[in-house]
Design a protein that fits this description.
Blueprint: H1 3-10, H2 18-28, H3 32-36
Domain HTH cro/C1-type: 3-35
Protein name: Transcriptional regulator with XRE-family HTH domain
GO molecular function, one term: DNA binding
């Protein structure tokens, strides 16, 4: 995953696809729902 994509998600410029959420959750070693309840 590109750094630019993550920056866009963090800045609410773009919403991540579910597959991207899974990759991020795996990298952070958290459950995908933990990313949605922030």
């Amino acid at each position: 995953m590109e750094r630019r994509s993550i920056q866009r998600y963090e800045n609410a410029v773009r919403d991540p696809q579910y597959s991207d959420l899974l990759l991020i959750a795996h990298a952070l070693r958290v459950h995908v729902t933990d990313l949605l309840h922030g």
